[in-house]
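Q: Here's a chain of 430 amino acids. Please give me its 3D structure as tokens.
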Amino acid sequence: MCDELVVCSMRLPSAAVLASLLPALALPALPAEAAARTGTTYYVDSKEGDDAADGTAPDRAWRTLEPVNAAELRPGDTVAVKRGGSFRGPLTLSARGTAASPITVKAYGKGALPRISGRTASCVVVEGDHWHISGLRASGCPWAGFEIKGRHNVLSGVEADRNVAGVSVTPAASRNTIRDSRFTDNNRMSVNDKGGDNDSGAFGILLNGDDNLVTRNTITGSHAKSYDYGVDGAAIEIFGGNRNRITHNRAHDNNTFSELGAEKGDTATGNIFAFNVVTSTLKSGSFLVTRGPRHVVGPVKGTRAAHNSVYMPARHTIGWSCHDGCSPSILRLRNNVIAVGGEAGYEDGKGADEAASVYQARSVKIKLGPGSVVADPRFVSRRDLRLAPSSPARGRAVRLDDSWFGGRELARDFTGKPLPSSTRHAGAYQ
């Protein structure tokens, strides 16, 4: 943030960790298709491997990532990386799988996730399509832990820490899924110099591409000191990305949960935020920041936020900000529970389209929509944002069609429960 209420502009390159991971959601499995190819499994072991071996068995494993980068991998192949190992990146995944036969990267053995670090910009670079990547940790990379450049790739059960961005999804990357993963203390700046308006960095996930799904992740510690803004960073930053779905994530101690923008002539349209749980103990912060047409990185059109639960008790906090020409075409909000120690929200122009929410704040200057109230939401605790039996958020929600959540498969509360057919509660929990 630039100061306690006004959030700084974005540029395209520009802490505590919660005790438990997200509960499992009953989302559908990836579709099974006929004619899947049974491929070859290649093993990599940083302690006992040998790059002169053929890599096709644990006792013939490769030692480094270089043979993987050079291998002519085919649909259905698997790369198995031994746990407890440490590797110098990059791991460059350039082959192409298919929907029926993706190429898989996974961990094997016992111990900690295999760690990839290095001096190149990104530690794991996914250039190809239809990769399923799990069980890797990318740490201390100069730019991104994972950089996704392709389409239809899945990151699941990965970890990224101490990078500028835990994951960077490039402008050409689309229809990728980032799920069930941990992004911790990605708190470094890519630009951090005195003067100007150009500091940038500290992203849990940076989305520059379209139609990606970010769900069931835990994102913590995305904040860093900034010469220009004092502090900067975001759990999930969207710049120029369209129709991304941000759902069922748990975020803690990030400077901003999400900030959106686009270069002039580009768009960041139709992004959805639903059933996210956001908490913070930081001195400043915000849940959602978006821009109208008068801003240098605006307008950001068609953002929707529904059934999110937010608790940020510090004084210099703000729930949501829609500035430089806000209107209902810029931001729509429904069924949220937002408790902050500062401003409930900020809007100018025609204002946002807001309804059926509960706000608790030091100052409430936004125009409340139908069914919205200012009241103590009565969370179970500061960390547990479920609703106490006496909460005014109970029964307050209005019914929404599945497009508000990014599709029927995502129309479930934070714990995975189907939405009730009758009375619904505001916030992430039913």
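Q: Can you summarize the key feature?
A: Residues 66-70 form the longest helix (5 residues).
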